[in-house]
Amino acid sequence: MKIDYLQALKRIHAARGVWLMQGQEPLLEQNLLQAFRKDWQQHNVERQRFDLNSVADWKTVFNALNSLSLFSQQLAIEVHGNIKPDAASLKLLKQYIQHNEHNLLLIVMPKQDSNSLKSSFFQTVEANGTLVNLIANSARDRQNILNIEAQALGIQLTYNAWQWLEQHHEHNLLAAKNSLMRVADTFPEQQQIEIEHLQQCLQDQSRYSSFDLSDAVLRGDLAQATKILQYLQQSGEAASLILWTLSKEMRLLMQLYEQPQNAIQLGIWRNKVAMYQHALARLSAQQFLTWPSLLLRVDAAIKGMRAENPQLLLQQCVAELCGRPLWH
Fold first, then answer.
1. For the chain, does the N or the C end have fewer beta carbons within 10 angstroms?
2. Is 170 left (phi over 0), alpha (psi -120 to 50) or beta?
3. Residue 259 in 3-state DSSP?
4. Rounded distance, CA 85 to CA 94, Å?
5. Which of 152, 208, 209, 206 is nearest to 184 (CA)?
6. Beta-bridge partner residues of 130
7. Angle between helices 239-258 and 210-219 (to 10 degrees)
8. What is the pLDDT of residues 137-188, one digit of tens each?
9. What pTM was computed for the model?
């Protein structure tokens, strides 16, 4: 079964078997994981997390699914990474699906290309479990998602305010949510948010933005990119938002390397195609191989699940994008 984010939110309590979330919207991933964890805590469901570093890690996952604690009646296992199971592990997955009616295997992956989605692994999950696409392609979908966030904050936006917010953040849902939080804090007595409130609160909020950081790393200007990164960190920009910006550029460059003729189809603005092509010219395929694991490390460090400094890891991402790694 294939469902979207809003449908997934309504089915969390009944989630069993195998669920797979894939996409490039960190806000949607973050919200669903929080909703799952809250539900597990409320119903005393034992939770374990695994990060995939190799195909062999899948065997560990299935061993854990078969070893329920004496103190638990249900088990939820989160698996994070971008490594599909091999034939042996796929067989274990099918056995789990057939014989497990109470536990939940929740797999969280970055956005997959069309070929991956046609693989046996994804076809098995879609046919026997739940595949959640973390995407919001249309303006209506993005507004519906953000409207839930606004309602939770006790505010409503006028039509013009929604249009301005969409344009200001160029479809970045996480950044838009942060702006909703900021405007709600700035105008605590104001339930109806007009475009003037957003402009007053957000237009001059910083000297640099995450978009400036994107441009600097694509130009390969390490000094300027580092300056912008430090400014954003010192001004209180969420580390998860900075990571979203850098991971978006990394994934676009990796995709463009594989599909050099498909820049527009990948979502790169026409006036920035040359900038991405120049960036590719100074990067190598060998560097790309290290990026997915680096992004997973940063994400885990931001969430407090790794004993590493997320600020230093973000600096490493900036240096990597500029073609000048800090260390190997």
1. C
2. left
3. coil
4. 11
5. 152
6. 19
7. 40
8. 788 888 889 999 999 999 999 988 888 888 777 677 888 888 898 888 888 8
9. 0.64
